[in-house]
C-alpha cells in the first residue's frame, strides 16, 4: 500500500479520500470497457449476426435424421471422455511420489 500511496502522491490527511477517488476512477474506466451496457452494445449485435448466419445455413440444408445425428455426437463425446480419462490416468501414474 505504501508504494501505491507514493505513486499517487497520497500523503497525510487526504490519504483515505484520495484512495477513494483513485478507486472511483479505476472503477469508472473498467466499467466503461467491461460493464454491462458496453458489453451489451458490443456483444449483442455480434451474437445476433452469428445466430442469423447459422440459422440461414441450417435453413438451406435438407432434413436431418436426429436419431443418427445424436448417435454420432454421443459417440464423439464418449471417445473424448475416454481419451480425457486415459490422459489423466497416464498423468497420475507418471507423477513421481516421494512418500
Keywords:
mainly alpha, 2 domains, 4 helices
What proportion of the residues is helical, as a percent range?
over 70%
Low-confidence stretches: none
- The dominant shape is flat
Computed over alpha carbons, the radius of gyration is 27 Å
Order of helices and strands: HHHH
Span of the ends, CA to CA: 41 Å
Question: Residue-averaged pLDDT, rounded?
Answer: 76
What is the helix tally? 4
Strand content: under 5%
Kindly summarize this structure in a few lines:
This protein is mostly helical. It contains four helices and no strands.
Description of the molecule:
The protein is mainly α. It is built from four helices and no strands. Helix 2 (15-34) runs parallel beside helix 3 (36-60). The relative contact order is 0.04. The model has no long low-confidence stretch (mean pLDDT 76).
Topology (SSEs and partners):
Blueprint: H1 2-7, H2 15-34, H3 36-60, H4 66-94
